[in-house]
Amino acid sequence: xxxxxxxxxxxxxxxxxxxxxxxxxxxxxxxxxxxxxxxxxxxxxxxxxxxxxxxxxxxxxxxxxxxxxxx
Length: 71
Known about the structure:
This protein is an alpha+beta fold. The chain has helices at residues 5-17, 41-50, 52-55; strands at 21-25, 33-36.
């Protein structure tokens, strides 16, 4: 996995520069939480599948759609 991390970092930086990756978090162990701003779930799925670690079969992804709360 380590040999793929530089490519993953470049890919994430490109998503951030394009305005699609808003935030990225580490849970303190394996994994990551990425906050994307995209028009729909299909776009989010496409981004997740394009991640180098996912394309290499090294990680799995889970999508959770978020919606603003109204008070």
